[in-house]
Amino acid sequence: MNLTLAAKDGRNQPRDEGLAESPLAVRGLTVSYGEKPAVFSVDATFRVGAMTAIIGPNGAGKSTLLKAALGIVRPLSGQVTCYGKPLAKQRGRIAYVPQRASVDWDFPTRVLDVVLMGLYRRLGLLRRVTTRQMQTALACLDRVGMSDFADRQIGQLSGGQQQRVFLARALAQGADLYLLDEPFAGVDAATEKAIIAVLKELKAQGKTVVAVHHDLSTVPEYFDRVFLINTSRIAEGTVEEAFTEAHLHEAYGGRLATAQMSVAG
Ligand code: ADP
Ligand code: MG
């Protein structure tokens, strides 16, 4: 009985099963900023049409994993494929919303222009924005409840409002894969609800969502799958398979008390 189950849930399958269809897969990914690796020999196969949470303690390498997968930081070793092909050929299919704290708007930029940036890959930097593209950008702002703010300066918005605008920019790209780094960090409850609603809409359209997530209490409600990391991969699977006390203990170690409280609460 157990053997049959183990075979069915994929643990006994060949290592590269699903690689060709996976919107994002990494193999043997190691990234180091100094002597100690931030991400060590990680395999991950994110599933198409799923919402996956990347979880793990502070400094576990969650952001680094995303950045290396996107080619923003260069790995020491490892392969990244996007829909079975090298990343370079698939960039247009990926939208990335970085951790908000890492974005610093030191020059005045209009909200609408931030969203239009999502269209530049198609637009070409120097071409004029068409009416249709303007409408697309406005529609994306509308989806995140920010159309009234189109003419405002991004720097004047609250953290939650800025995060919605970054999500609107990602939507404007019309990507198939959405990578978000702590989209709910420092946002108000209304924004969190608005963002999760949009992400669930994307999933309903068959898009793939991968988000670094720090609030363990909302993992089962928001996500289908979990990728648990602490420099190395701890677990990957459905919430039921991967989001277990044993795996959390392995990932969070001494910090488990806090983690468990969040799970319970
Ligand atoms: P997480 O997102 O899980 O909190 P990070 O990927 O940001 O973790 O960081 C993983 C490790 O790499 C940490 O020890 C962090 O201090 C280090 N690190 C991250 N970015 C840099 C950087 N640009 N230069 C040097 N070390 C970094
Ligand atoms: Mg991070």
Mean of all residue-level pLDDT scores: 87
Summed up, the domain count is: 1
N-to-C CA distance: 34 Å
Cα Rg = 19 Å
- Estimate the global geometry from the Cα principal axes: globular
Query: So what's the CATH class?
Result: Alpha Beta
The CATH homologous superfamily corresponds to P-loop containing nucleotide triphosphate hydrolases
The profile of the biggest β sheet is: 6 strands, mixed
Q: Specify the structural class.
A: alpha/beta
* Ligands, deduplicated: adenosine-5'-diphosphate, magnesium ion
Question: CATH architecture, please?
Answer: 3-Layer(aba) Sandwich
- Poorly predicted residue ranges: 1-14
CATH fold descriptor: Rossmann fold
Strand order of the largest sheet: 6-7-8-3-9-10
H/E series, N to C?
HEEEHEEEHHHHEHEHEEHHH
User: Approximately how much helix is present in the residues?
Assistant: 25-40%
- The proportion of residues in beta strands is 15-25%
**How many beta-strand elements?**
10
Query: Oligomeric status of the shown chains?
Result: single chain
